[in-house]
Amino acid sequence: MNAYLRRQRGSAVVEMAIIAPIAFLLLIGVIEYSLVFYTTLVMQYAVREGARYAITGRTDADPATSNQQRYLAVVQQIRNNSMGMYDSVSPVISVNNTTYASSSAYSATMFGGAGDIVVLRLDCTWKLATPLIAALFPNGQYKFSVSATMQNEAF
């Protein structure tokens, strides 16, 4: 056998062992970066649908069958349209520049009355898993806000 061929034997395995971790890290980074944009778009859609529901004054989306509340119905509508991302992004809800950090802070009048302008905003946090991408963001978290502004209908 040729001496040159004997020296080349196994070089492909060594090259693959060096390049594979970098290639897989980049691939996973691209996938996670795509998830960041997908999550932002999904939450934008969910907040818009929540605002559309809020301006009608309806309460039928509230999971409680008795004593249905408008604010709980709006949050449920956002949750229903978030494709399962609502709990993953830990949203903080703001209505007309008033922040509601927990569901106990919600009030019956937070969306206003007929003809009022409603600005619904969610401040979201997405925890990044890939070290390559997480290093680009403070604390390895991607923070974003989505909002929708609409006028209440006459209800």
TrEMBL record:
One protein family per Pfam? TadE
Domain (TadE-like): give its ranges.
Answer: 10-52
Matches recorded under InterPro entries: TadE-like_dom
Transmembrane spans: 12-38
Q: Which UniProt keywords apply?
A: Membrane, Transmembrane, Transmembrane helix
Q: What superkingdom heads the lineage?
A: Bacteria
In Swiss-Prot or TrEMBL terms, this protein is called Pilus assembly protein
